[in-house]
Write a structure and sequence with these properties.
The chain has about 240 residues and is of the alpha+beta class. The protein has two domains: about 60 residues, Orthogonal Bundle (Helix Hairpins), CATH 1.10.287.130; about 150 residues, Heat Shock Protein 90 (2-Layer Sandwich), CATH 3.30.565.10. It contains seven helices and seven strands, in the order H-H-E-H-E-E-H-E-E-H-H-E-E-H. The longest helix is centred in the N-terminal third of the chain and has 31 residues. The radius of gyration is 20 Å and the shape is globular.
Length: about 240
């Protein structure tokens, strides 16, 4: 954690000092734009780390509460995919969706469902090499609703599943790890979906891609009567 926090923070301080003191001349120099971009990226990364750590602390202390409401999960999936499109494009990764048309609304915490999906999508894009694929599917299953995030990335050895799902777990060693992160994305997603009474399952193999599936139980589904559904369609 020390490395993960200090690296972006040092970048924020260092580049800020260069811009503040105009070490390369007046602020019109094009390099300042690059430094500003580095500051933004490092600051954003640091903020995400802090938020994840705070959320984990709340979860472990039993102080994180759900703000439940009726939400359109298909729209939630769509908005999360849209947020990840630029990152996927920069990494030259194809991002696609397959959402059932008759997906019902669910009773859940909208913010936390977005957090779950963004964590899973971010991991999928991060660990998928250039030219790879990331796909999000949403469908009915066993009376409930499932969302699967699949990628063609580096994969995880099944023997490492337990480690990958543990807070701060890193499958690769600290010395040779190629991908930055705290190891909080999957554990947070698992805790948050379990707070909804759901489950998170993992399927993967080394160099064979990964599929993470979250499942919301039937009691989370908001069923519409045929009359109400028809009235909504007309409106």
């Amino acid at each position: 954690m020390s490395h993960e926090l200090r690296t972006p923070l040092n970048a924020v301080i260092g580049f800020s000092e260069i811009i503040k003191d105009q070490m390369h001349g007046p602020a019109g120099d094009a390099r300042y734009c690059t430094y500003a971009a580095n500051i933004f990226q490092s600051g954003h990364h640091l903020l995400q780390l802090i938020n994840d750590i705070l959320d984990l602390s709340k979860l472990e202390a039993g102080q994180l509460k759900l703000n439940e409401e009726e939400i359109d999960l298909a729209a939630t999936v769509g908005s999360c995919v849209s947020l990840m499109e630029e990152q996927a494009k920069r990494s030259k990764i194809q991002l696609s969706t397959n959402v059932d048309r008759d997906l019902p609304p669910v009773h859940a915490d909208s913010r936390r469902m977005r957090q779950i999906l963004l964590n899973l999508l971010s991991n999928a894009v991060k660990f998928t090499p250039e030219g790879g694929l990331v796909r999000v599917s949403a469908f009915r299953r066993n009376g409930g609703l499932a969302i699967a995030v699949s990628d063609s990335g580096i994969g995880i050895d099944p023997d490492d599943f337990e480690k990958a799902l543990a807070p701060f777990g890193q499958v690769e060693s600290t010395l040779n790890r190629k991908f930055e992160g705290t190891g909080l994305g999957l554990p947070l997603a698992k805790h948050l979906i379990e707070m909804h009474g759901g489950t998170l399952s993992l399927e993967s193999e080394v160099n064979g891609g990964t599929t993470v599936t979250i499942f919301l139980p039937p009691e989370r589904i908001v069923e519409r009567s045929p009359v109400a559904t028809a009235a909504k369609a007309v409106a």
